[in-house]
Write a structure and sequence with these properties.
With about 150 residues, this protein is an alpha+beta fold. It has three helices and six strands. The chain has a single domain, classed as Nucleic acid-binding proteins (OB fold (Dihydrolipoamide Acetyltransferase, E2P)), CATH 2.40.50.140. The longest helix has 15 residues.
Length: about 150
Amino acid sequence: MKYLISLLITAALCFAAESKLGKPLTLTAQTAIADINANPANFLGKTVQVKGKISEVCQSMGCWMQLVDPATKAAVKIKVKDGEIVFPKDSVGKLAVAEGKLTRIEMTKEQAVAQAKHEAEENNKKFDPATVKGPVTIYQIQGTGAVIE
């Protein structure tokens, strides 16, 4: 009987450690982040599912997280509308699976500087406008759901 209770508690803790955010994941296959980065046009506007280690999270509203594939070091940002999903600010270092549509954002140099400055302020980081070069095209996933392990 003690063994059964121990087993049930252990199972409950394992399931409790997983956070499901937003809509349930619908795809059964994951796309490698490196594949998306190498050929973004092939995935643009399509729903993709990616897996990686969380390297950054928006410290202001929890409206985005950066995932990095531990094997290839390829990275992608998962962005959501403010308040739609709130990624836990303390989830850096955890594994996550996220799903959403790949989008392209084209910015002038001025827009890119403003965006980089905003993100630096959100994360209490120093910002040097000289680090932003020319117009910028960014590919990111407009997230609909995620599971953080």
